[in-house]
Amino acid sequence: MTAQDSATHTSSIAVSSGTLLAALGVIAFSLTFPSTVWGLESFGPWSLVAVRSTLAALIAGGFLLVMRIPLPDRRHWAGLVVVAGGVVVGFPLLTTLALQTSTTSHAAVVVGLLPLTTAAFAAVRTGRRPSRTFWLAALAGAAVVIAFTVQQSGGALQTGDLYLFGALLVCAAGYTEGGRLARHMPGWQVIGWALILCLPLALAGSAVALAFEPVRLTAHGVIGLLWVAAGSTFFGLYVWYRGMASIGIAKASQLQLAQPLLTLVWSVSLLHERLSPAAPVAAVAVLVCIAVTQRARS
What we know:
Elements: H1 3-30, H2 32-39, H3 45-66, H4 77-98, H5 104-110, H6 114-126, H7 132-153, H8 161-181, H9 187-212, H10 219-247, H11 249-255, H12 259-271, H13 279-295
């Protein structure tokens, strides 16, 4: 094997590994909405978000302390603030508020616009311009998601949609900045330091929210809280940022086109929501769009 062949083989393995990690992140994220609904059985919306962030920060802090990880360079702190504001505080809070009035299936398909939003943020932030084929496939995937959303909601936006659209923007910014930072430090450290930044706010928020919102512990509620803290917020973001660092923000973001459809499966199996007959058609169309974006130049 020549040096060039060896380099190509190594690059191919890295891409495959990055795609697998990003896909694991998508699976973890797809369980977030059903877990949030379970968590709301035991906690109020503000309590759930605050306690979730506190637990995730304690997990991350434990890893950082045990492994004696030094503080990030000063130049990275501004980016970590964006990650913290977008994926640790903004997205969980806005989607939790939305899920008080929206079903998980409806919220999932609205947030299906996240891949296109993230790709747009990444193009502006990093200066990389994906190919026309990539954008056409991404827009087609977004169009499928929008059509599915309209079909599910009867053509009218719901109250929670304003929260969901806000969540799209802050999360896309957090994903983009986190993916950029993951090129300079391991992905788990990116989300770990972002969580530590939020710990004082999360502790104060937990104390205040728990004092004003009733707590009724149930098995579903506890499982939901533990998953959104350890599964979605820590593990999911860890593998997600590693995947983005390996295959690129824009390409990784398009794997999330599958997330709404996975969430629909969980909403039926775990929450017993009724699945729209259009779901299988949307699933095939979205998966085709994913395949095209993964092959297109980005």
